[in-house]
Amino acid sequence: MAQIVGERAQAGDAIVDYDQKLFDDIQAEAGEKAYIFMHTVPYEGSVGLVNMLTCTRINRKGFDTSLVLYGPGVLMASATRGFPTVGSEAFPGHLAYNNQLQTFMKEGGKVLACRFAMAALYGMRETDLIEGVQPIHPLDILDCTLTARREGALVMQTWTL
After folding, report:
1. Known Gene3D superfamilies for this protein (predicted)?
2. Is 72 helix (H, G, I), strand (E, B) or coil?
3. Mean pLDDT across the chain
4. Looking at the 3D structure of the chain, how many domains does it have?
């Protein structure tokens, strides 16, 4: 039988060095923008929530931040989520996507959702979006990317299936 080396970690113990930071804490300069594009299936992995947390952090650094949801990503902005009724949380964290999007928008972030993915793929109506989410034309996805390029903006793109 293998021998355990060291003592068992206890709640509140630090198991790695959380204080050492190698890079400067970059803050946005006046007028800097960020665009985060997400084509991901909600709740099929952590990438959607992690990217929303990253959007919020980028926004808090002072960037004019836009989150662009397309493909299955539009499902993250569904205002009709809940069980047994809309807005009811079936288990802790069940509405994490909704809550994080609302936090992001309350702090000045913009959320855009592709109308094609909403209607053609998922049967979502514009009224099914979380309040404050802006529906956009499907051709705006490319034009938004090109706008970000012209602006010299920070761009992050995530695809999952």
Report:
1. DsrEFH-like (3.40.1260.10)
2. helix
3. 93
4. 1
User: So what's the pLDDT on residue 152?
Assistant: 96
Query: What is the enclosing helix (H) or strand (E) of 145?
Result: helix 140-151
CA–CA separation, 69 and 76 (whole Å): 8
Closest CA relative to residue 70, chosen from 142, 4, 155? 142
d(CA 87, CA 68): 23
Is residue 1 one of the residues assigned to a domain? no
Any domain includes 15: no
Tokens of 149: 């390029």
The pLDDT of 128-133, averaged and rounded, is 97
C-alpha closest to that of 140 among 110, 161, 160 = 110
In a domain, 76, yes or no: yes
Specify the CATH number for the domain of residue 114: 3.40.1260.10
Query: pTM for the whole thing?
Result: 0.89
Domain that holds residue 116: 33-159
- The Cα–Cα gap between 74 and 80 comes to 12
Strand 134-136 to 154-159 pairing: unpaired
Q: Are strands 110-114 and 134-136 parallel, antiparallel or unpaired?
A: parallel
d(Cα 117, Cα 131) in Å, to the nearest integer?
A: 18
